[in-house]
Amino acid sequence: MTKLKGPKFIQYFQPVIDGLRDLGSSAKPSEVYTWITEHYPIPKGEIESTTKGGQSKFQNKVGWARFYLAKGGLIATEQRGVWVLTEKGRKANFSHEEAYNFFKSIHDGFQLDGGQADETEPENTVDEADASAPDEKTYLNQDVIQEELVNILRGITDKGFEELSARLLRHIGFENLKVTGQTGDHGIDGEGFLLINRFVRIKVMFQCKRYTGTVPVKDIRDFRGAIQGRAERGIFLTTGTFTKGAREEAARENATAIELVDIDRLLELLIEEGLGVRETKALTIDREFFSPYRKAP
């Protein structure tokens, strides 16, 4: 993509808008990510590399683009987990210069708690940091927690990761899970059943890879070959990421379906299920509340 002045994420303003427009004016983040990678030449390294908190750098930039588009009224924020294009957004068609000016107008409007304008240089905002976009976070300290979780997950034993994965799968609805983890079983680390309704359940086999890099397409092909005829679906969990080829192979039609759980999704599930993390209460001062009672300047 063409290099612009300012943060690199502003290059994603128009792709996010185009994607939402093409997807019917609303979509889940994962649908937008997929649309952009299919319609724009995103560098492989950007898609596969992660921040310190385990998030894809590509998805992180798209998240920041959505944040600014929402602040500018081009994307609605009424429902978490669904991005909705507004009437203003439907009409938007940014040139590179317009994208920068749009970003700068919003960035310059931000105020610090004490009422001082934020003097951060727009050109240096976000790109050199691993911070998630504010609206993409559920907890104030989520970046710090996720970074620590990544280090913990990549430091546990292979067997420990298999057992943790099984525990996570139990939490999200799997039954009769057992960890096999036997050598010579073509990489299958466990199996169980997912209850679809009161009468139907499907057999699932899973594989766990404690990686720091990317899982190649070969691993997905080997895993599918191992579960073919033995399970109706597979789940591949990793502390790394998946190459584009691996994702395409997992989604291949007329083949045993394989769900991919990378480090980003793994952290998301652990936090959602409260595994390895605890919520704590904290107070913050509502400065706006006291505004009417302050002395006039």
From TrEMBL:
This is Restriction endonuclease. Residues 154-270 form the Restriction endonuclease type IV Mrr domain. GO terms for molecular function: DNA binding; restriction endodeoxyribonuclease activity. InterPro entries: Mrr-like_N_dom (IPR025745), Restrct_endonuc-II-like (IPR011335), Restrct_endonuc_IV_Mrr (IPR007560), tRNA_endonuc-like_dom_sf (IPR011856), Type_IV_Methyl-Rstrct_Enzyme (IPR052906). It comes from Acetobacter indonesiensis. It holds the Pfam family Mrr_N. Residues 11-92 form the Restriction system protein Mrr-like N-terminal domain. One of its GO terms (biological process) is DNA restriction-modification system. Residues 113-132 are annotated as: Disordered. Residues 116-130 have a biased composition (Acidic residues). It comes from the Bacteria.
